[in-house]
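call fold(seq) -> tokens
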Amino acid sequence: MTEPLHTSSNGGAERGPNAAFESEKTLQTTTRLQRFDSLHMEAGKIPGGQSHTAKVGWATTLHLAFQSIGVVYGDMGTSPLYVFSSTFTNGIKDTNDILGVMSLIIYTVVLLPLIKYCFIVLRANDNGDGGTFALYSLISRYARISLIPNQQAEDAMVSHYKLESPSNRVKRAHWIKEKMENSPNFKIILFLVTILATSMVIGDGVLTPCISVLSAVGGIKESAKSLTQGQIAGIAIAILIVLFLVQRFGTDKVGYSFGPIILTWFIFIAGTGVYNLFKHDTGVLKAFNPKYIVDYFERNGKQGWISLGGVILCITGTEAMFADLGHFNVRAIQIGFSVVLLPSVLLAYIGQAAYLRIYPEHVADTFYKSIPAVTAIFQTTDKIGNAYGIAVVFVMFITTLLVTLVMVMIWKTSLLWIALFPVIFGGAELIYLSSAFYKFTQYLPISKIETKERFLFRYVEPKEYRVFRCVVRYGYNDKVEESSRNWRSLVMENLKQFIHEESLYSQSSHSLEGESIKEIGGVTDPTSEVQDAMSSRNNSDQHTTEPRNGCMDEIQSIHKEMGNGVVHLLGETNVVAEPNADFLKKIIVDYVYNFIRKNFRQPEKITCVPHNRLLRVGMTYEI
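ret:
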């Protein structure tokens, strides 16, 4: 690049002392204003920041932690109702087995919910949202593995993304990323695994209330011996109906309502555990020695492995810590688990173990006997537990696999930790899963899109036609505007903003091109005008400024056309079987596929487009 020349007093040309500085400054300005597609310009408006998750103070965090107790930990907190009875289904033949099972419970709770979820998995959240689908969304943003090609170059400029310097870990992540992107089979498998895990979470949600409520109601038998199992199931069903009716009031109200109740429950089971420990047998504290786990399996062999299907129920509800993260925050979940649930539940199990050392024959009703003073189908908690264990551990294992991908591609952790994570946690989960199986015969992949990042515009050339392309981006947790009128207003406001900014951009770029070389006798440094234009553009995000005359006609034209009415063009694709297709293909394509397609929510229903303003445009494909 030619350096700017200054004319000396004798008419010769010489390089001024600030020439290099001014050259660098002009280069930086030119680079900053190099011509991008308007979609790039719009997408890059939000500076800095890698997450939309707001930082909250300790008062708010403790407030959320209290609410999380009533929403997240109800399942894990009620597991002492049925774990020992589900583990020792055939009774306790050796009281030393109690120490082995107690040791298994201690280290299962420490290994999976505490270490894996509290300190590792919760960090793999998708901008504050958790769950299997959130992990899939997070991975899809760093690699083109989504089955739906919904990624555009502009999406990399959303404030969820960041650039990194080259390193060995970055190169390794890039190599794995390329392998995944070039493997169609991997994309399909990953998608199916995500859907399967999501289905398991739904199954978990069906079985959780059943086993918890049925176990709780089962205590009525202690004082009402005449009640049959069917009558107890009926009472549990009535309670479940009431609980599901309450859920419609939302997480906030449910958290406030059940928080004090569940907290009281934790205090109660912890106190009962301490009482039983000192009253019956303090020797159960030896279970903190993992040697008793080895002794348990040596003594019981295959039956010890089968019993793991009952032990795993001690961590039911663990996935809720991650799946419900969007309602709270990481710190609140960690506090709720570490401070309240962990000590309370462990004390409850320890107290029950102490009681069973003295009264092993009461294992079927340990919880109620030790106190001082889907439901209709399964009937008992033993059968529910078999199905429940599969759903719980399957989701946890899939989460382990997806978090491993996150560690490789996104966190870029060292190889040692990447290897240890699936080996330790995945290995433990596979052992539990095998036991449970034996006993049981798009809009973008981002959870939320900020309003300022939602609309992207570009001109459809030639500009004189005044035709625009608009991309509206929604995250999978964003709510689509209910009123089509409000939606049109949002589009128009953002379109006017785009025209205004495009006008400023064009004027500043034109000014820079005409004055890139500064000479004595010239007027002003072109960078000042550019900086004014850029400042005006940045301020327009916070304060709407009056558009310049150059774009006034265009905006007035848009207002005029808005007055004439809006017609929505909806792209539509129809698929039919070829005339010479075989009978099976015709049935699947013409009937099964079309039946499923018609039962999905239609785009015009999602965006609330009125029928008299809708024009469908599409193609029919024969396959």
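Residues 443-566 form one domain.
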